[in-house]
């Protein structure tokens, strides 16, 4: 709580300005009337958002504010925006590396606001990594950059963990932003242990699950078929599960990935540890493409994001839906509330 006894609002980053971040932020604010959207303050260019709202016919008043507290106070009447200047005009669908510094600065500011207690959690709009790389960005993605901002030590013990959540499914990829070829050597006993520990702790702390149940996916088809299709299950994954269980974590597996995600299977666990990116994200996005949420576990602050990209192909057309962003906002608020106690 702030000194006035009011809960700090969420802070939302601009994301890629040529993408759909501005549009879904406008639409999320417009959905606040039913009480499903918690108060948030957006880091962006107010003039850009005003022009975007007018072009899309969205009746959203945009108000530049000087502080998060000021933004929280007027959230009911207007979309509060902490100004973040852009270096170049924005053309929907055409990212400009000249604006990369502003995109990165909005992430930096959001984290700083939360760490100073002015905002309760960080919610990030999607970034266009190719544009940021051209601007000098050197991190594989949001997750890794947020770990850098959090001051976590490089290496296994300090790395955050990415969780994707939608409806009745939570998935955690043990390896994230690497190719499938490069992911296999990174599936180690230590990496699985780290993901399991962080996930179990976060489920208890941030989701209120007293005794989290983890299902651990196999790497190979049919869980390796007793070694006939690979020994990773025997030599790496099963020993890691045994270690987790020895630490008091309820973990089972290795489970064949092709039978881990149907409705009856999902009722048997609170989160599934998956060995690589698409093994986790394909079932989640198939089950619920519209309201998936990306959650970073293991940070000293709450961070969520919509589970979709910048959608450059529809940017500026008015077609973007805000369901995933709204889910990210409500999830962030619920997690922050649990941390407040």
Automatic annotation (TrEMBL):
- Which positions does UniProt annotate for substrate binding? 142-143, 285, 294, 303
Any Gene Ontology biological process: pyridoxal phosphate biosynthetic process
Keyword Manganese tagged: no
Q: What class of enzyme is it?
A: oxidoreductase
Q: Where does the protein end up?
A: Cytoplasm
- InterPro entries reported for this sequence: PdxA, PdxA_fam
The record's section on HAMAP family has: PdxA
Note describing how the cofactor binds: Binds 1 divalent metal cation per subunit. Can use ions such as Zn(2+), Mg(2+) or Co(2+).
The reaction(s) this protein catalyses: 4-(phosphooxy)-L-threonine + NAD(+) = 3-amino-2-oxopropyl phosphate + CO2 + NADH
What's the protein here called?
A: 4-hydroxythreonine-4-phosphate dehydrogenase
Organism of origin is Azospirillum brasilense
Q: Say yes or no: keyword Cytoplasm present.
A: yes
Q: What is its EC number?
A: 1.1.1.262
Question: What do the Gene Ontology cellular component annotations say?
Answer: cytoplasm
Its annotated function is as follows:
Catalyzes the NAD(P)-dependent oxidation of 4-(phosphooxy)-L-threonine (HTP) into 2-amino-3-oxo-4-(phosphooxy)butyric acid which spontaneously decarboxylates to form 3-amino-2-oxopropyl phosphate (AHAP).
Q: What is its cofactor?
A: Zn(2+); Mg(2+); Co(2+)
What else is on record for this protein?
The active site is located at the dimer interface.
Q: What family is reported? A: Belongs to the PdxA family.
């Amino acid at each position: 709580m702030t000194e006035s006894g009011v809960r700090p609002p969420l802070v939302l980053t601009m994301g890629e300005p040529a993408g759909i971040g501005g549009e879904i932020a406008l639409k999320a604010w417009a959905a606040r009337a039913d009480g499903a959207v918690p108060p948030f303050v957006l880091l962006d260019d107010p003039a850009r958002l005003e022009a975007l709202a007018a072009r899309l016919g969205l009746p959203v008043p945009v108000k530049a504010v000087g502080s998060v507290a000021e933004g929280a106070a007027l959230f009911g009447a207007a979309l509060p925006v902490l100004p973040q200047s852009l270096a170049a005009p924005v053309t929907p669908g055409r990212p400009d590396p000249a604006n990369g510094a502003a995109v990165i600065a909005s992430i930096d500011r959001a984290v700083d606001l939360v760490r100073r207690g002015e905002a309760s959690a960080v919610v990030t709009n999607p970034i266009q990594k190719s544009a940021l790389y051209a601007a000098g960005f050197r991190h594989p993605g949001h997750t890794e950059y947020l770990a850098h901002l959090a001051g976590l030590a490089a290496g296994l013990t300090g790395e955050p963990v990415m969780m994707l959540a939608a409806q009745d499914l939570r998935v955690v990829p043990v390896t994230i932003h690497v190719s499938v070829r490069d992911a296999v050597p990174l599936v180690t006993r230590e990496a699985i242990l780290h993901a399991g520990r962080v996930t179990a702790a976060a489920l208890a702390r941030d989701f209120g699950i007293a005794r989290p149940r983890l299902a651990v996916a196999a790497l190979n088809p049919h869980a390796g078929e007793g070694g006939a299709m690979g020994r990773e299950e025997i030599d790496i994954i099963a020993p890691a599960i045994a270690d987790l269980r020895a630490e008091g974590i309820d973990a089972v597996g290795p489970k064949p990935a092709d039978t881990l995600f149907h409705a009856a299977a999902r009722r048997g666990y609170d989160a599934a540890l998956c060995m690589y990116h698409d093994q986790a994200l394909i079932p989640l996005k198939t089950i619920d493409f519209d309201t998936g949420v990306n959650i970073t576990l293991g940070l000293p602050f709450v961070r969520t994001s919509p589970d979709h990209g910048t959608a450059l192909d529809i940017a500026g057309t008015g077609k973007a839906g805000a369901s995933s962003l709204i889910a990210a906002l409500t999830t962030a608020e619920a997690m922050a509330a649990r941390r407040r106690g």
